[in-house]
Amino acid sequence: MYSHHHICWLLVVLLASFHSASALSAPARPLRRLSHPSTLSIDILPRRQSPPILGKRSLPIDSPVLHHTDSFRLTLTAFDETFYIHLRPNDHLIHPAARVNYYKTGPDGQSVLTRTEPILRESVKAYWGEVIPAHVSPDRLREDTAGVIPRPSGIYELGWARITVYDQGDADAGRPPVFEGAFSVNGVTHHVQTKANYLRNKHALDPHIELDDAHPDANLVIWRDSDVMSKHEHERILGLDVSSPKAHGHGETCGHDRMDFNTDPLQNEAIRKVPPPPYTPWYDAFGFLHSATNFSKRDDVAGGGMGIDFSGYIGQTAGCPTSQKIVYMGVAADCEYTSKYGSTGNATRAIITNWNTASALYKTTFQVSLGIVELQVHEPECPSTATSDAPWNVACSESVTLNDRLSIFSGWRGQKGNDGAGLWHLMSGCPTGSEVGIAWLATLCQQTSSGSSPSIVSGTAVSTSGRTEWQVIAHEIGHNFGAIHDCADGCSCSNGCETDSVNCCPLSTTTCDANSQYIMSPVAETGEMQFSPCSIGNICSLMSGAAGGHTNTTCLIDPNAMASLTTSKPVITLQMCGNGIVESGEDCDPGLGSNSTCCDASTCKFKKGAVCDPDSSQCCTDSCTFAPSTQVCRPAKDATCDTAEMCTGSSATCPPDVFASNGKSCGSNGLACASGQCTSLSQQCQLVGASMGLSKACPSNDDKSCQVSCQDPNNSNQCVVLQSALIDGSPCGYGGTCISGNCKPGSWQNFFKSWYTHNLQISIPVTVIVGLIVLLILYAIARCIMRSRRSKPARTAQRIPSYPGPPPMNFAPSAMVRQNSSSTPMYGPNVPVSVAAAGGGQQRPGRTSHSSRSSAGSGGPAGPAPARRTSGGSNSVVSGGARQSRQGSGHYAPAFPIEPIRNSRMDWVDDTVYNGPAHGRR
């Protein structure tokens, strides 16, 4: 501990430095207390067998070594409390093709690229999770084993947790684990650091570390936000007069509001209010009735404040992603930052830890994770002059402020162009006065630069080192996302909320001052771990453009698109030898630090005499030769659905995997082939959810998530969704198939068949009704056909009118003659005898009378009686005496000759022929 003389001497030094700095530099307030946490256990959850990856050898699932993909429970004690921290991997922190470039200062004082290394995901053990009460932890452990998402109601949490593990430790050797991060318990944040990093950022008045290196808990320190001195305590220790204005100097601040681009809507379109629509009502189309006093005020004064008021969007999340997204970032560390941490390795580790903690905050708030795609880390020795490839890497000086570094860094970022990074962040060891960070507002996904020095703008920010620098990083990235500062003391919301004439985000619609309790506070304070409801509405409304301005979100990618991103937008331009993946131009790649007998790990080329490498190929022997064709390189997963693949004997590559078609039946109870495995949805529930007693798949047939979903054994009406994805080839939705976590729809026949069989309570009644309708339609058609056949009319005799019309003008009796084979004239049945006689030349044409009333059944002397039409109620025609009128009498009607009438001329008209002797009688 400090002696009394040491404390007095330190106070004098602090007071002198305080006045010389003119209150511009006010470091974080010191700690009253700290402790050393004791790690009781790291309980690794059971692992599930994952499909093998060609060219990669995986560790056994029962290995006691902590993997980067493991979920586990960290149990530790501190401050006389025991904390149960349940953690799972942060899968999206490191880009699959991430790299780190290391620079050093050459003999000529210039920065030189010394090496480029891949950032292997398996080398980064970054996790996030929750702190769980002791009595709930066993149940939660079973849920974690099954991978339940989301958590069932009733299982509550004490707070969040973000931990990066550096060393798992060894209980047998007495070596405790080493990790860093933060977690919260009932709203109080606990910070865990290594002893070395604590000493690097230690305040002069911070407590000394009392344990020696031999103590098992000496490697770590822990403190709470409640352990930080209050302002009054700090002022009393410094001996300052509490009533003095200097005693109330600002703490660590952000220089955001002093940048014109961040406050002037004319320079930054994202914060420009959309002009109101023109005043053109239907009754005043030309504006004659519109008073000049009703025109809206024109906001065209540079620096006159932002036009957007975000108080109307407090707490609204509309516009933010509804599913998980990632923005991959580039991070650079200058020489001063690396110097704070002693080496490039320590600086790299600190950056990854900070991003893991900040990423979890964005993930839980906006569903956007922060990932790293590239690091540029410079050696602690600063160059004598700035270089063209890294002009921002210069030593601290009064001539280069934090604002200058941001402008220089933005120009450098614009020259990189489209490199796959949505944002770039500079970590520096050079704060300017009380400013510890600065950023350009609403520049997400901006990969180009604009403007001129000293205000070159791009998607960039600068943060400086400190005890809780992850908070500064999260704050500045919030500006990149479009968040303005929360309102502070002295703000006013009479005409839009402002602090010192700069727009701000109020606590609520009725309260302006947010009291520095959120991450976007302009002054750094303890306990800032969340975004305020106004900041959430601010960022989300800009993403959707609802507030008028709009941020670019094209660099936010879906986690499932990582494979396509790596191939379509390569961010690694140099050959990444040492990442354990055989890439184009490489013979082999055993990984960094490997002592392969067949492959040179430094060049990724075969050693002399080797034709393959067993660490990279499955059909290679330990003697660096091809394996024989009798060697199995890929065993069969299932005897029914898969076959084993054999090496060819002439290649180190295992042949492609061949298995039975997906959906092929392989047993009862719904078992079917899926990627060579005989399984079912219920069987996958049994395998994954055994710790919770899950055994039956959830009967939600329209589920297209391709995640294992099981029926809750305690509530059959509830489904428990697990983190595990269904095996490729498993059914999903109606007739679909899961492929790489996505439900690929099938044909319409498969869709209909699946829908029908899974909805029998609907399909059977509908089928019955449709069948009855079809039967009724067929019956109606048959009835129509039968009725049409019955009602078909019979052939009837020709109806002849009683009084025929006048004969043709060109008529001769001879025309009525029909010749037969014997040349004997034949007349029609209705031709009178007198006419027939006249036509035969036996009578002279003349006027004759004829009475033809005959009795029933009689015929004429020359043959059958001619047909006649009766009158008086019956219009039947009687021919040849076969029929006879039952009543009345009629007149003979001549029938036209069958032979066509040729050129004959009628010289006379015998009216008796047509009218008969009784013409005119009634």
From TrEMBL:
The lineage of its organism: Eukaryota, Fungi, Dikarya, Basidiomycota, Agaricomycotina. Residues 844-856, 865-890 have a biased composition (Low complexity). Keywords: Disulfide bond, Glycoprotein, Hydrolase, Membrane, Metal-binding, Metalloprotease, Protease, Signal, Transmembrane, Transmembrane helix, Zinc. Residues 1-23 form the signal peptide. Residues 325-544 form the Peptidase M12B domain. GO terms for molecular function: metal ion binding; metalloendopeptidase activity. The chain crosses the membrane at residues 762-782. One of its GO terms (biological process) is membrane protein ectodomain proteolysis. PROSITE patterns: ADAM_MEPRO, DISINTEGRIN_2. GO terms for cellular component: plasma membrane. This is Disintegrin and metalloproteinase domain-containing protein B. Residues 791-922 are annotated as: Disordered. Gene3D superfamilies: 3.40.1620.60, Collagenase (Catalytic Domain) (3.40.390.10), Disintegrin domain (4.10.70.10). Pfam families: ADAMTS_CR_2, Disintegrin, Reprolysin_2. The active site is at E476. It comes from Dichomitus squalens. Residues 574-662 form the Disintegrin domain. Probable zinc protease. Zn(2+) binds at H475, H479, H485.
